[in-house]
Design a protein that fits this description.
Blueprint lengths: L1 E7 L7 E6 L3 H7 L10 E8 L2 H11 L11 E2 L3 H16 L19 H12 L6 H8 L4 H13 L3 E5 L5 E5 L1 H9 L5 H14 L15
Antiparallel strand pairs: 1-2, 1-3, 2-4, 5-6
């Protein structure tokens, strides 16, 4: 299997690296982290395909108005816009039959820290009696400042979205990347989320190191 990928870098604000590879996207993103690059690339989206080069050619034609420089594979748009442009092309011409059940915007686990993954599971499990923010502050972060950073960082990468709720409180909900991440971990099943949530309730952890290991639950 070959892949077209979308990468981002926190030190390249507003730019996405889009390209293709016949190897692991994780290996490709690591290879791009050279001495001339200040920080690692994060994997935002992966499109499995049998002809990544042709898909890349079509993608670059479609995204030409957003290309930063003609000979460079960087584009000025956000992840949601890029996926919206590429998904119709992928579905029509480049999605292999065996990948019908695989969402193209699979977020790989390497893009999340342990605390970020725990936050995604807490938000997804909708722990009763608590808001997600308080759960993150009480169970994961070492301070309110760290909790706010985790939430805002996840929001900037489309894992969560922030909304205003009743009494002008801030509500955190899963965004498309967060839902995709849960799906990639086979955690969209309500029963599995309930089991994980009950395990959290019974242990009453105070930090991410005390959170139940989800890989041992199923």
């Amino acid at each position: 299997m070959e892949y077209l990928y979308i990468l981002s870098n926190k030190n390249m604000d507003g730019l996405l690296k889009i390209g293709c590879t016949k190897k692991s996207v994780t290996d490709r993103s690591k290879a791009l982290f050279t001495t001339g690059v200040p920080d690692k690339f994060d994997i935002e989206a992966i499109f499995p395909t049998s002809d990544s080069k042709r898909f890349e050619d079509e993608a670059f034609k479609t995204l030409a108005p957003y290309r930063n420089k003609k000979q460079r594979e960087f584009f000025k748009l956000n992840v949601r816009q890029a996926i919206d442009f590429l998904l119709p092309i992928y579905d029509e011409r480049f999605r292999p039959d065996e990948s019908d059940s695989i969402p193209p915007d699979v977020i790989e686990s390497e893009t999340l820290t342990e605390n970020e993954e725990a936050a995604i599971f807490l938000i997804g499990s909708k722990h009763p009696g608590w808001t997600a923010q308080y759960e993150i502050r009480d169970r994961i972060a070492q301070s309110d400042l760290e909790a706010d950073y985790i939430i805002k960082d996840l929001a900037s990468r489309n894992f969560v979205k922030l909304k205003r709720g009743m009494m002008d409180t801030e509500v955190v909900q899963l965004d498309h990347a967060g839902l995709t991440y849960l799906k990639s971990k086979d955690m969209l099943d309500p029963e599995k989320l309930r089991n994980w949530k009950l395990n959290c309730q019974s242990k009453r952890p105070t930090r991410s190191n005390d959170l139940p290991n989800t890989s041992e639950l199923f």
